[in-house]
């Protein structure tokens, strides 16, 4: 080769291969220089690092694969330049193909550096290859050196970009950014670092993985959505714990935010596993060279995993502190509530104070029905409403646990009672009120019209619900203990039946949530009964004090007295037993919806009506009312025995003053002392006939003895008949 041709080649290469470009651009520039200097039709370059696939081409469109024969591969590896005259010297399908297209010359040259084959260079000619083509042997080392330097510079640039991206994550941790902010910074940095069309960060939750950060027009609007883990390429990454490269994203078999990924062509999904457990995924879509992006993406994903874990742990500590604060504050505020109904009222007020909410509702589970025990904010008017079984999200929460609804208007499970005039909007959290033995006491609902509730906020609601449930049970136990203690003291201290009954009526009204109570009884167990004590009523009840009530007349009173069992009537419109006249009058006067009746031993009955609209009677309330009625019966029995003792004492005193042999005076003293209507002394006038010789409350009479109580007395038996 002449020095002029070599000089021209070196000049062309030196101009084309100036530092600063990426390897592909430099390769095209160098190829253009060679084509121009050697009058070639086209040229292309393949690199060994990607399997001799095409890196760059000018003037022609060669296939992606090299299709070298073994002899060609061996010669190129040895550093030889191969020159072919086409078509007669074609050695394989590739060179034969160029000959068939009308080309007359092909040069294959190796790009070498000491001890290493970097790739292959090919030149295509329309005529026989010129002798100057042999000059390639002298300039190819320079071409390879410049190309290698470009690769090194590009690698340094990529590493610099990686360090800058990692620095952004480190700075986010040092600045105390939130978990979602770190995820957003990670998505943006990965998008820029790897030149992807879109990048996502999703975090694993119980139901799937939620998109928490995204960059790219097609995915940014989907932030916050949940997608299942058990489908598509994310399932593969979840199970294997290794990166998954998808050359083409399918447009079927996907759901959730996965559906928006199909137009982005390819995907590289990297599990985020800082401690061996997958906490989420980094997704890269629409990559220019997905395979080449793998190592860099894995390096970035490893640091992103650590950053997310760091923030997750920090936020978990802060979350636990907030939950403890809510729990302690709630227990303090609810601890002094006198009864469960007051706990419910305070709980909805606390929800507005301690949680990001605009209204709150507490529903108590009563005999398979949920009742709105208390409500605040826009829902204040629904207190007392009953939610039928299996209607609404509250029943779902009782079965499945806490439910978080991002948009109430779009969830078909939401139940809106007809009493609410306007449709509900916003986001809400529905969580059970858990009892100490795993049973559900009811439901707490909080809602707001602004941003959807986050999982962290939902856990705060759960903490408040836990405190509320504890307070409900404690208030119930305290109420039972307090009322029973007060009842025992009343029974021991009060001197008159009226004061005793009045005190127990007050206790019974408290037992059912501060409603009304009435006690119908006779202090000595006689008939008819009268109204001995009331609670929760006013002057309008005066007429009932003038009425006598006979349990033998039937109605609710008769049933309770005969059965000696509680009568629970949740809906007076369809009672299991029809009421009597006096009971009907009370229902009409007070508009009673539900009522509970219990027997007061053999003395009477007690009725109680709940203090909250729509309230059902809890089992503990029925038991408590029975026990209070038992204490009242015990107090009345002591009163009856005391009265009987006084009468006997007075009778003995009177009898001691009667002159001996005065039977008329004796019978009169006995009848008046015992407070009876009729008394007599008789004697036998025949074996089966007696004569009443002295009568109190009547005149002497003669009667047949058989079949009468007096017969047993005459026959030697101690028989007493009371009537």
UniProtKB/TrEMBL annotation:
Keyword Transmembrane tagged: no
A Pfam cross-reference name: GAF
Keywords: Coiled coil
Domain of life: Bacteria
Keyword Acyltransferase: no
Residue ranges occupied by any GAF domain in the UniProt entry: 1-157, 178-318, 339-482, 496-646
Coiled coil: 307-334
Protein name: GAF domain protein
Organism: Meiothermus taiwanensis
